[in-house]
Amino acid sequence: MPQHAPTLRICRDCDGFATVTITTGTRHRDGTRATLRVPCPACKGTGTRLVRQQEVSV
């Protein structure tokens, strides 16, 4: 039976880790660190990207 290729691929820029957390170096009053969540600009935080028609036809 033929196997169908999935239409969603892992993002090349973030390798599927779509959001990273960066510490700012400061702490809150309770002692926890202040962090920023930054999504991948290429896939906009989804971790996947659509496959173009050119990439599918081999």
N→C terminal distance: 19 Å
Domains counted in the coordinates: how many? 1
Multimeric organization: single chain
Helix content: under 10%
* Uncertain residue segments: none
Spatial strand arrangement across the major sheet: 1-4
Question: What would you call the shape?
Answer: rod-shaped
Radius of gyration: 18 Å
Mean pLDDT: 81
Quick synopsis:
This protein is mainly beta. The chain contains 1 helix and 4 strands. It is rod-shaped, with a radius of gyration of 18 Å.
Please describe what this structure looks like.
- The chain is mainly β.
- The chain has one domain (8-56).
- It is 7% helix and 38% strand.
- It contains one helix and four strands, in the order ββββα.
- The strands form two sheets. A two-stranded antiparallel ribbon has the order 1-4.
- Strand 2 and strand 3 form a beta hairpin.
- The mean pLDDT is 81.
- InterPro entries: HSP_DnaJ_Cys-rich_dom_sf.
Annotate the secondary structure layout.
Elements lengths: L7 E3 L8 E9 L5 E7 L8 E3 L2 H4 L2
